[in-house]
User: Which sequence fits this backbone?
């Protein structure tokens, strides 16, 4: 059973640069979520997809952030013109989306440091 | 606004005793509740869940209790083991939508 895979595990970038993260969900899962976690906080919702359709975006997702899931399989999260406040752990999760009992399964995250 | 609250940032429990972690929520539309466990440098791992039509769900050493009138849920771990030391997050959702997480409780099991 292959879990959720995220790449890279760590990314250090300079302020103003663009970064892109990749997530490969569990293969039979239709839903894919992006969350962000900072120190001392719980994961905060960013956006989620049902297959290739992006169903909801958080107000946290500014215009500099964009997420795609072009073929309903893997997803990418791009941050343009990074700022120091973007430093966080970016978590991807997937689920079957079945109502009533559909826990999210998380990857190990991408830790972004903006210098 | 913090719709899911974990008011205890940390908890220490002797090995073999019961650990009780608490969580409160404000949104009465939540109908699905979960607990996750997180080790450093790893993503959260799903532990146990409960639907709003139930008031208790048990899985081995883990039991989740839901009190809808009080908008409160708790996770009981018995007996507690050293490997249970981690940060625990409660989470909630409504209508099969996104999960909203609490801020976490760091559980330390003392050998």
Assistant:
């Amino acid at each position: 059973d292959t879990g959720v895979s995220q790449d890279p595990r760590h990314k250090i970038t300079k302020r103003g640069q663009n970064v892109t993260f990749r997530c490969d969900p569990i293969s039979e899962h239709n839903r894919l979520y992006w969350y962000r976690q900072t120190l001392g906080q719980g994961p905060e919702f960013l956006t989620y997809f049902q297959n290739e359709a992006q169903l909801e975006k958080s107000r946290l997702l500014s215009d500099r952030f964009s997420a795609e899931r072009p073929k309903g399989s893997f997803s990418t999260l791009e941050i343009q013109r990074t700022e120091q406040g973007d430093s966080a752990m970016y978590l991807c999760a997937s689920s079957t989306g079945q109502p009533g009992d559909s826990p999210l399964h998380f990857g190990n995250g991408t830790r972004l440091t903006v210098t | 606004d913090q719709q899911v609250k974990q008011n205890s940032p940390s908890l220490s429990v002797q090995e073999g005793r019961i650990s009780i972690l608490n969580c409160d929520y404000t949104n009465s539309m939540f109908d699905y509740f979960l607990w996750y466990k997180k080790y450093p440098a790893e993503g959260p791992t799903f532990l146990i869940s409960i639907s709003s039509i139930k008031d208790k769900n048990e899985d081995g050493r883990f039991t989740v209790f839901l009190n809808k009138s009080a908008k409160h849920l708790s996770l009981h771990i018995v007996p507690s083991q050293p490997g249970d030391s981690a940060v625990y997050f409660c989470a909630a959702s409504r209508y099969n939508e996104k999960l909203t997480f609490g801020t976490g409780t760091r559980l330390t099991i003392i050998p």
Observations:
- The two ends of chain B are 38 Å apart (CA to CA).
- The mean pLDDT of chain B is 95.
- The CA atoms of residues 15 and 111 of chain B lie 5 Å apart.
